[in-house]
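Second attempt. The first submission of Xanthine dehydrogenase family protein subunit M had a stray character pasted in from the spreadsheet, which I only caught after the job came back as garbage. Lesson logged: always re-copy from the clean sequence file. Corrected sequence (290 aa) follows.
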Amino acid sequence: MVLAPFDYARPETIDAAADALADGRGQVLAGGQSLVAAMNLGRQSPVRLVDINQIPELTEVTYAADRIIIGATVRLAELRESPRLLREAPLLYAALRHVAHVQIRTRATLGGNLSQADPCSELPAVMVALGATATLRSQQGERDVAMADYIVGPYRTSGDQTELLTRVTVPLPSGAAAGFYEIARKAKDWPVIGAGAQVRVNADGFIDDAWVGACGLAGRPRKLIEVEQALRGKPADADALRSAASVATGAEEYPGARAGARYRERVLPVVVERALVTAVETTREQEHVA
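This time the job returned cleanly.
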């Protein structure tokens, strides 16, 4: 298929990118893993492509005492290969292990993955679970949006065509371990449903806190608050994990779902339990090494 004509802008600063998007007719090009495919199929015909890959600030990863700040064009492969991310952001790292093939991760960016807002995507689910924040920039200024409010539905975000996602701030709960489990039709395919869990277990073997999120459950990533509440103060044993996972619910039909809501509702507690078991087992392995 012959692509429709489009203008091309390659800004080198965030301000210049905001200028290129100001009329609402630009489309951001980062890794291009979804956008270029959609253009080839005739599903998208942008008037202007705004290539943000030459903006240095968007490639930065900054660690602070209680959070990590990740630029929008940081490649998923860079994050996946980071030993520090494994140590300090275990839930994000656990989810990255399930994202696509290495060829795709080499080009795909964090900002592009989140802005695509695919309901089955692993990364939005763990971002929502951890309480991450998206920072958006336009000519009118900068605003921060909770990730739970940034992704509003299947392939839809609360950002508009004049705004650029510049960075994502992810809280880093201390002393916690994580696990991620998903069901997919084949290896590295989009999951039918998945869940990520991060838990903090105290010296007495009880769960002090938990962060749990699901992808593929509904048209947007879901923080499983009911599971988190059921875990807090409970012993980190098999019965408690299974009991907490059993309260997980909320499957909905949505466009593009890879299985019916009835099936996803049925397997959700199993998926959550396996993510929790992995997290607790990782905690025990860390204690043994220490």
